[in-house]
Amino acid sequence: MSVIVSVIYKGLSIMSVTTKLSPINHAVTILREGGLVAFPTETVYGLGADATNEEAVYKIFQAKERPYHHPLIVHLTSAQMLPAWASAIPEAAYTLAKAFWPGPLTMVLKKQPHVLGVVTGDQNTIGVRVPRHPVAQRLISTFGKGIAAPSANKFTHISPTTVAAVEEELGDSVNFILDGGQCDIGLESTIINLTSSQPCITRPGRISVEAVSNVLGMEVIFEREEQPTIRTPGMHHLHYAPITITLLVATADILASIQHLQQKDLSMAIMSHSAIAIPETDHIKHIRMPREPEAYAHDLYQTLRTLDNKGYARIIVEAVPLSADWAAVHDRLRKASRIESSL
Ligand code: TXA
Ligand code: MG
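That is the input. Now the predicted structure with threonylcarbamoyladenylate docked in place:
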Protein backbone atom coordinates (compact mmCIF):
# COMPACT_ATOMS: atom_id res chain seq x y z
CA MET A 1 0.00 0.00 0.00
CA SER A 2 1.42 3.39 -0.85
CA VAL A 3 0.58 6.13 1.56
CA ILE A 4 1.16 9.80 1.24
CA VAL A 5 1.91 11.28 4.62
CA SER A 6 0.54 14.76 4.72
CA VAL A 7 0.00 16.90 7.76
CA ILE A 8 -2.53 19.12 9.34
CA TYR A 9 -1.05 21.93 11.33
CA LYS A 10 -2.86 23.25 14.34
CA GLY A 11 -1.88 24.48 17.76
CA LEU A 12 1.40 22.92 18.78
CA SER A 13 1.93 21.44 15.36
CA ILE A 14 2.75 24.78 13.76
CA MET A 15 6.20 24.31 15.27
CA SER A 16 7.01 21.84 12.57
CA VAL A 17 6.79 24.51 9.88
CA THR A 18 9.67 26.36 11.45
CA THR A 19 11.65 23.36 12.65
CA LYS A 20 11.07 21.53 9.34
CA LEU A 21 10.55 18.22 11.05
CA SER A 22 9.05 15.44 8.98
CA PRO A 23 5.43 14.71 9.92
CA ILE A 24 6.45 11.54 11.74
CA ASN A 25 9.25 13.27 13.66
CA HIS A 26 6.94 16.12 14.49
CA ALA A 27 4.30 13.71 15.77
CA VAL A 28 6.96 12.00 17.88
CA THR A 29 8.06 15.34 19.34
CA ILE A 30 4.48 16.01 20.36
CA LEU A 31 4.15 12.57 21.95
CA ARG A 32 7.40 13.13 23.87
CA GLU A 33 6.08 16.49 25.08
CA GLY A 34 2.94 14.82 26.40
CA GLY A 35 0.61 15.88 23.57
CA LEU A 36 -1.99 14.00 21.56
CA VAL A 37 -1.48 12.73 18.02
CA ALA A 38 -4.21 11.18 15.87
CA PHE A 39 -2.87 8.59 13.45
CA PRO A 40 -4.22 6.17 10.86
CA THR A 41 -4.37 2.45 11.41
CA GLU A 42 -5.76 -0.15 9.01
CA THR A 43 -8.94 -0.33 11.13
CA VAL A 44 -9.85 3.21 12.22
CA TYR A 45 -7.94 6.34 13.27
CA GLY A 46 -6.47 6.27 16.78
CA LEU A 47 -5.96 9.09 19.28
CA GLY A 48 -2.49 8.47 20.66
CA ALA A 49 -0.50 9.48 23.71
CA ASP A 50 2.70 8.24 25.34
CA ALA A 51 1.43 5.18 27.25
CA THR A 52 4.00 5.81 30.02
CA ASN A 53 2.94 9.42 30.64
CA GLU A 54 -0.02 9.54 32.99
CA GLU A 55 -0.86 13.18 32.34
CA ALA A 56 -0.74 12.64 28.56
CA VAL A 57 -3.04 9.62 28.77
CA TYR A 58 -5.52 11.62 30.86
CA LYS A 59 -5.74 14.07 27.98
CA ILE A 60 -7.12 11.29 25.78
CA PHE A 61 -10.08 10.89 28.12
CA GLN A 62 -10.65 14.62 28.21
CA ALA A 63 -10.54 14.92 24.42
CA LYS A 64 -12.91 11.99 23.95
CA GLU A 65 -15.13 12.93 26.91
CA ARG A 66 -14.77 9.29 27.85
CA PRO A 67 -15.13 7.95 31.42
CA TYR A 68 -11.75 7.29 33.04
CA HIS A 69 -12.30 3.62 33.86
CA HIS A 70 -12.32 2.53 30.21
CA PRO A 71 -9.12 0.68 29.29
CA LEU A 72 -7.08 1.74 26.27
CA ILE A 73 -5.19 -0.35 23.73
CA VAL A 74 -1.39 0.05 23.75
CA HIS A 75 0.00 0.02 20.22
CA LEU A 76 3.40 -1.66 19.68
CA THR A 77 5.70 -2.29 16.72
CA SER A 78 6.07 -6.04 17.12
CA ALA A 79 5.57 -8.99 19.44
CA GLN A 80 9.14 -8.37 20.65
CA MET A 81 7.77 -5.46 22.66
CA LEU A 82 5.22 -7.71 24.40
CA PRO A 83 7.27 -8.67 27.49
CA ALA A 84 7.81 -5.00 28.29
CA TRP A 85 4.04 -4.54 28.68
CA ALA A 86 2.51 -7.94 29.41
CA SER A 87 3.43 -10.64 31.92
CA ALA A 88 2.80 -14.40 32.08
CA ILE A 89 2.38 -14.30 28.30
CA PRO A 90 0.84 -17.57 27.08
CA GLU A 91 2.28 -19.35 24.05
CA ALA A 92 -1.05 -18.67 22.30
CA ALA A 93 -0.22 -14.96 22.26
CA TYR A 94 2.94 -15.57 20.26
CA THR A 95 1.13 -17.99 17.96
CA LEU A 96 -1.53 -15.37 17.24
CA ALA A 97 1.08 -12.63 16.84
CA LYS A 98 2.90 -14.73 14.27
CA ALA A 99 -0.30 -15.32 12.32
CA PHE A 100 -2.00 -11.93 12.59
CA TRP A 101 0.48 -9.18 13.54
CA PRO A 102 0.89 -6.66 12.24
CA GLY A 103 -2.87 -6.53 11.79
CA PRO A 104 -6.33 -5.93 13.22
CA LEU A 105 -6.08 -8.12 16.34
CA THR A 106 -5.95 -6.82 19.92
CA MET A 107 -4.91 -9.23 22.67
CA VAL A 108 -5.85 -8.78 26.31
CA LEU A 109 -3.08 -10.16 28.53
CA LYS A 110 -1.89 -9.83 32.14
CA LYS A 111 -0.10 -6.52 32.52
CA GLN A 112 3.38 -5.72 33.76
CA PRO A 113 3.27 -4.02 37.18
CA HIS A 114 4.58 -0.69 35.82
CA VAL A 115 1.69 -0.24 33.35
CA LEU A 116 -0.33 2.77 34.41
CA GLY A 117 -3.80 2.29 35.86
CA VAL A 118 -5.11 5.07 33.63
CA VAL A 119 -4.20 2.91 30.61
CA THR A 120 -5.75 -0.32 31.89
CA GLY A 121 -8.85 1.03 33.61
CA ASP A 122 -7.14 0.01 36.88
CA GLN A 123 -7.40 -3.65 35.88
CA ASN A 124 -4.52 -6.14 36.04
CA THR A 125 -4.80 -6.72 32.29
CA ILE A 126 -3.65 -4.79 29.23
CA GLY A 127 -4.90 -4.62 25.64
CA VAL A 128 -2.08 -4.67 23.06
CA ARG A 129 -2.02 -4.51 19.31
CA VAL A 130 0.51 -4.15 16.47
CA PRO A 131 -1.16 -2.18 13.67
CA ARG A 132 -0.07 -2.82 10.10
CA HIS A 133 -0.69 0.63 8.63
CA PRO A 134 2.73 1.91 7.52
CA VAL A 135 2.18 5.36 9.06
CA ALA A 136 1.25 3.82 12.41
CA GLN A 137 4.27 1.52 12.20
CA ARG A 138 6.64 4.37 11.50
CA LEU A 139 5.13 6.49 14.22
CA ILE A 140 5.50 3.80 16.88
CA SER A 141 8.95 2.67 15.80
CA THR A 142 10.29 6.24 15.68
CA PHE A 143 8.72 6.97 19.06
CA GLY A 144 10.24 3.74 20.38
CA LYS A 145 7.65 3.18 23.11
CA GLY A 146 4.05 2.02 23.37
CA ILE A 147 1.33 4.42 22.26
CA ALA A 148 -1.98 4.27 24.13
CA ALA A 149 -4.74 4.93 21.64
CA PRO A 150 -8.48 4.46 21.53
CA SER A 151 -10.41 5.29 18.39
CA ALA A 152 -10.21 9.04 17.68
CA ASN A 153 -13.89 9.85 18.27
CA LYS A 154 -15.97 11.27 21.07
CA PHE A 155 -17.20 8.65 23.54
CA THR A 156 -20.08 6.58 22.02
CA HIS A 157 -19.73 8.22 18.58
CA ILE A 158 -18.79 6.47 15.35
CA SER A 159 -15.08 5.79 14.93
CA PRO A 160 -13.34 7.97 12.31
CA THR A 161 -11.97 6.39 9.15
CA THR A 162 -10.70 9.62 7.51
CA VAL A 163 -8.82 12.73 8.66
CA ALA A 164 -11.93 14.85 8.05
CA ALA A 165 -13.84 12.61 10.45
CA VAL A 166 -11.12 12.94 13.12
CA GLU A 167 -11.29 16.72 12.82
CA GLU A 168 -15.06 16.65 13.01
CA GLU A 169 -14.88 14.55 16.18
CA LEU A 170 -12.00 16.13 18.05
CA GLY A 171 -11.38 19.58 16.60
CA ASP A 172 -8.61 21.41 18.45
CA SER A 173 -8.32 18.91 21.29
CA VAL A 174 -5.83 16.93 19.22
CA ASN A 175 -2.42 18.54 18.67
CA PHE A 176 -1.59 16.89 15.38
CA ILE A 177 -3.13 14.54 12.85
CA LEU A 178 -1.17 12.22 10.58
CA ASP A 179 -3.02 11.58 7.35
CA GLY A 180 -2.89 8.05 5.95
CA GLY A 181 -5.98 8.29 3.75
CA GLN A 182 -9.17 6.31 4.34
CA CYS A 183 -8.76 3.26 6.57
CA ASP A 184 -8.71 -0.01 4.64
CA ILE A 185 -10.83 -2.10 6.98
CA GLY A 186 -13.12 0.53 8.45
CA LEU A 187 -14.10 -1.31 11.66
CA GLU A 188 -12.17 -1.67 14.91
CA SER A 189 -9.87 -4.62 15.59
CA THR A 190 -10.97 -8.04 16.80
CA ILE A 191 -10.32 -8.27 20.56
CA ILE A 192 -9.29 -11.58 22.12
CA ASN A 193 -8.89 -12.09 25.84
CA LEU A 194 -6.11 -14.60 26.62
CA THR A 195 -6.12 -14.23 30.39
CA SER A 196 -8.24 -17.30 31.14
CA SER A 197 -7.85 -20.92 30.09
CA GLN A 198 -10.25 -20.55 27.17
CA PRO A 199 -9.49 -17.72 24.74
CA CYS A 200 -12.47 -15.46 24.35
CA ILE A 201 -13.26 -12.96 21.62
CA THR A 202 -14.99 -9.93 23.11
CA ARG A 203 -15.26 -7.76 19.99
CA PRO A 204 -15.63 -9.26 16.50
CA GLY A 205 -13.59 -7.75 13.68
CA ARG A 206 -11.98 -8.62 10.35
CA ILE A 207 -10.12 -11.52 11.94
CA SER A 208 -12.89 -14.03 12.57
CA VAL A 209 -13.49 -16.38 15.49
CA GLU A 210 -12.95 -19.23 13.05
CA ALA A 211 -9.60 -17.91 11.83
CA VAL A 212 -8.38 -17.55 15.42
CA SER A 213 -9.65 -21.03 16.36
CA ASN A 214 -7.89 -22.55 13.35
CA VAL A 215 -4.57 -20.91 14.19
CA LEU A 216 -4.76 -21.90 17.87
CA GLY A 217 -6.12 -25.38 17.11
CA MET A 218 -8.70 -25.00 19.85
CA GLU A 219 -12.18 -23.71 20.39
CA VAL A 220 -12.47 -19.99 20.91
CA ILE A 221 -15.64 -18.57 22.33
CA PHE A 222 -17.28 -15.28 21.46
CA GLU A 223 -18.64 -13.39 24.41
CA ARG A 224 -19.71 -9.88 23.73
CA GLU A 225 -18.00 -7.31 25.90
CA GLU A 226 -20.49 -5.63 28.20
CA GLN A 227 -21.10 -2.18 26.85
CA PRO A 228 -20.24 0.60 29.25
CA THR A 229 -23.27 1.78 31.14
CA ILE A 230 -24.17 5.37 30.57
CA ARG A 231 -25.47 6.41 33.94
CA THR A 232 -27.93 9.01 32.76
CA PRO A 233 -31.54 8.05 33.34
CA GLY A 234 -33.43 7.58 30.10
CA MET A 235 -30.36 7.50 27.87
CA HIS A 236 -29.96 4.63 25.46
CA HIS A 237 -26.93 2.44 25.87
CA LEU A 238 -25.60 3.27 22.47
CA HIS A 239 -22.08 2.79 21.27
CA TYR A 240 -20.53 3.47 17.87
CA ALA A 241 -23.69 5.45 17.24
CA PRO A 242 -24.82 8.26 14.98
CA ILE A 243 -26.81 11.09 16.59
CA THR A 244 -29.72 10.47 14.23
CA ILE A 245 -32.10 7.80 15.50
CA THR A 246 -30.92 4.71 13.65
CA LEU A 247 -33.08 1.63 13.27
CA LEU A 248 -32.00 -1.85 12.29
CA VAL A 249 -34.83 -3.44 10.37
CA ALA A 250 -35.24 -6.94 8.90
CA THR A 251 -35.46 -7.01 5.09
CA ALA A 252 -39.07 -8.21 5.24
CA ASP A 253 -40.11 -5.22 7.39
CA ILE A 254 -38.33 -2.42 5.54
CA LEU A 255 -41.22 -1.31 3.35
CA ALA A 256 -43.65 -1.29 6.29
CA SER A 257 -41.18 0.79 8.32
CA ILE A 258 -40.85 3.28 5.48
CA GLN A 259 -44.60 3.56 5.23
CA HIS A 260 -44.91 4.06 8.97
CA LEU A 261 -42.37 6.90 8.93
CA GLN A 262 -44.01 8.43 5.85
CA GLN A 263 -47.31 8.57 7.68
CA LYS A 264 -45.57 10.54 10.42
CA ASP A 265 -44.08 12.81 7.76
CA LEU A 266 -40.51 11.97 8.84
CA SER A 267 -37.54 12.19 6.49
CA MET A 268 -35.30 9.16 6.31
CA ALA A 269 -32.25 7.57 4.77
CA ILE A 270 -32.32 3.85 3.99
CA MET A 271 -29.13 1.79 3.83
CA SER A 272 -29.82 -1.49 2.07
CA HIS A 273 -27.49 -4.17 0.73
CA SER A 274 -30.00 -6.60 -0.82
CA ALA A 275 -31.91 -6.23 -4.08
CA ILE A 276 -34.97 -4.82 -2.31
CA ALA A 277 -36.64 -1.97 -4.25
CA ILE A 278 -36.80 1.20 -2.17
CA PRO A 279 -39.04 4.08 -3.25
CA GLU A 280 -37.11 7.36 -3.54
CA THR A 281 -38.97 10.56 -2.75
CA ASP A 282 -38.01 13.98 -1.41
CA HIS A 283 -38.24 12.47 2.05
CA ILE A 284 -36.43 9.22 1.32
CA LYS A 285 -32.75 8.92 0.48
CA HIS A 286 -31.65 5.46 -0.57
CA ILE A 287 -28.05 4.32 -0.14
CA ARG A 288 -27.12 1.02 -1.71
CA MET A 289 -24.43 -0.61 0.43
CA PRO A 290 -21.98 -3.25 -0.83
CA ARG A 291 -23.20 -6.85 -0.77
CA GLU A 292 -19.86 -8.22 0.46
CA PRO A 293 -19.18 -7.92 4.21
CA GLU A 294 -15.63 -6.57 3.87
CA ALA A 295 -16.63 -3.87 1.40
CA TYR A 296 -19.67 -3.08 3.56
CA ALA A 297 -17.45 -2.73 6.63
CA HIS A 298 -15.11 -0.41 4.74
CA ASP A 299 -17.99 1.95 3.89
CA LEU A 300 -20.13 1.64 7.01
CA TYR A 301 -18.86 4.37 9.37
CA GLN A 302 -18.25 6.87 6.60
CA THR A 303 -21.78 6.33 5.26
CA LEU A 304 -23.37 6.65 8.71
CA ARG A 305 -21.33 9.79 9.38
CA THR A 306 -22.35 11.40 6.07
CA LEU A 307 -26.01 10.58 6.62
CA ASP A 308 -25.84 11.74 10.21
CA ASN A 309 -24.70 15.17 9.03
CA LYS A 310 -27.62 15.49 6.64
CA GLY A 311 -30.21 15.78 9.40
CA TYR A 312 -32.67 13.04 8.45
CA ALA A 313 -35.22 12.23 11.14
CA ARG A 314 -34.32 8.53 10.92
CA ILE A 315 -31.69 6.27 9.40
CA ILE A 316 -33.03 2.81 8.58
CA VAL A 317 -30.46 0.09 8.08
CA GLU A 318 -31.43 -3.20 6.50
CA ALA A 319 -30.30 -5.95 8.89
CA VAL A 320 -27.38 -7.99 7.54
CA PRO A 321 -27.12 -11.79 7.55
CA LEU A 322 -26.29 -13.49 10.86
CA SER A 323 -23.55 -15.59 9.26
CA ALA A 324 -19.97 -15.53 10.61
CA ASP A 325 -18.61 -13.42 7.74
CA TRP A 326 -21.01 -10.60 8.69
CA ALA A 327 -20.39 -10.86 12.47
CA ALA A 328 -18.34 -7.66 12.84
CA VAL A 329 -20.72 -5.57 10.73
CA HIS A 330 -23.74 -7.01 12.52
CA ASP A 331 -22.14 -6.22 15.89
CA ARG A 332 -21.52 -2.55 14.99
CA LEU A 333 -24.99 -2.14 13.49
CA ARG A 334 -26.56 -3.48 16.67
CA LYS A 335 -24.51 -1.02 18.71
CA ALA A 336 -25.37 1.88 16.44
CA SER A 337 -29.10 1.35 16.36
CA ARG A 338 -32.15 1.46 18.53
CA ILE A 339 -34.73 -1.25 18.63
CA GLU A 340 -37.41 -1.20 16.00
CA SER A 341 -40.13 -0.36 18.48
CA SER A 342 -38.72 3.15 18.89
CA LEU A 343 -39.97 4.00 15.39
O1 TXA B 1 -8.94 -1.07 15.85
C1 TXA B 1 -8.82 -0.71 17.01
O2 TXA B 1 -8.75 -1.50 17.97
C2 TXA B 1 -8.73 0.82 17.26
C3 TXA B 1 -7.40 1.31 16.67
C4 TXA B 1 -7.16 2.77 16.96
O3 TXA B 1 -6.35 0.51 17.15
N1 TXA B 1 -8.81 1.09 18.64
C5 TXA B 1 -9.97 1.00 19.34
O4 TXA B 1 -9.85 1.42 20.66
O5 TXA B 1 -10.99 0.59 18.87
P1 TXA B 1 -11.11 1.70 21.60
O6 TXA B 1 -10.58 2.29 22.86
O7 TXA B 1 -12.11 2.48 20.89
O8 TXA B 1 -11.60 0.29 21.96
C6 TXA B 1 -10.75 -0.49 22.75
C7 TXA B 1 -11.47 -1.66 23.29
C8 TXA B 1 -12.47 -1.26 24.34
O9 TXA B 1 -13.68 -1.93 24.09
C9 TXA B 1 -11.82 -1.74 25.61
O10 TXA B 1 -12.76 -2.11 26.57
C10 TXA B 1 -10.97 -2.92 25.15
O11 TXA B 1 -10.51 -2.51 23.90
N2 TXA B 1 -9.82 -3.11 26.04
C11 TXA B 1 -8.68 -2.41 26.08
N3 TXA B 1 -7.91 -2.82 27.10
C12 TXA B 1 -8.58 -3.82 27.71
C13 TXA B 1 -8.34 -4.63 28.86
N4 TXA B 1 -7.25 -4.50 29.58
N5 TXA B 1 -9.27 -5.54 29.18
C14 TXA B 1 -10.41 -5.67 28.47
N6 TXA B 1 -10.72 -4.91 27.39
C15 TXA B 1 -9.81 -4.01 27.02
MG1 MG C 1 -13.74 3.24 20.23
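The pocket of threonylcarbamoyladenylate (ligand 1) is lined by residues 41, 43-44, 46, 70-73, 104, 106, 108, 120, 123, 125-127, 129, 131, 149-151, 188-189, 191, 203, 225 (CB under 6 Å).
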